[in-house]
Amino acid sequence: MSPERPLASIDLDALLVLASAVAREAGATLLRLREVARTDVTTKSSVTDMVSDADRASERLIVERILAARPHDAILGEEGGERPGTSGVRWIADPLDGTTNYLYGHPAFCVSIGIEWDGEAVVGVVYDPSADELFAAVIGGRATLNGSPIRVSAKADLPTALIGTGFNYSAQERAEQGRVLAHVLPRVRDIRRRGAAALDLCWVACGRLDAYFERGLQAWDMAAGDLIVREAGGVTAAIEGGHAVPGSMVAAPPALIEPLLALLLEAERGAR
After folding, report:
1. Mean of the per-residue pLDDT values of the chain
2. Looking at the domain that runs over 158-271, which CATH code has it been given?
3. CATH fold of 7-149, please?
4. CB contact at 8 A, 58 and 111
5. What is the pLDDT of residues 174-190, one digit of tens each?
6. What is the C-alpha separation between 119 and 115, in angstroms, rounded?
7. Which of 79, 116, 74, 117 is nearest to 96 (CA)?
8. What's the rounded Cα separation, in Å, for the pair 165 and 156?
9. pTM over 0.85
10. Neighbours of 107 (CB within 10 A)
């Protein structure tokens, strides 16, 4: 973080309030459009990577609300690309994480909004409109669910851990992920795949999952959830070690992170 723009110079609580309100409004838009969302569906990177009018409407709303309140901020959105800014604040938004679930009528979808200050994650909000659950965190504060504090699980034993994961849109990558999963599955309690990475990370943060891993995530998939996990007492990392980055994410309680990383690397070596 730049010494010319210290963290104390920005009102994180105000950013949290704005992000929460925007996420809730975008979530309400998704619920309203749910019944007609299937009428205009296109694909992005592959035939399994879908985008709908609902994605675009949600992102338009998010961008409009942010710029109305903070016109000098930068914004990175999944559907609209990157808009530069001059304030040092960058919003990273996934307007609809879990598009496939949304289009098929599964309730596991959400709005994810992360905020960076000079490149460091400082606020994260994930809203699940189907359950009316708002997960939120501020750097150096605490993670919450609808305003109540949350913590990662106390699990320390990998063989009894419930692990979440997700799959890439590329058929070739999915095949390799399947081989990795075949190695991991007998060595943990079970695997869950919900199809919305931001929600998976929040479920780690509140103990509904013991841990989570995935390759192939984008910045907007993890920007909010990564911070929420860490402020809930968890650890995030890349599968290779070091900080979690787009493309390589593991989230777990402190006692599980090293054994899970070791298992994943062992599984990936065997899958090649």
Report:
1. 91
2. 3.40.190.80
3. Fructose-1,6-Bisphosphatase; Chain A, domain 1 (3.30.540)
4. yes
5. 898 999 999 999 999 99
6. 9
7. 79
8. 19
9. yes
10. 15
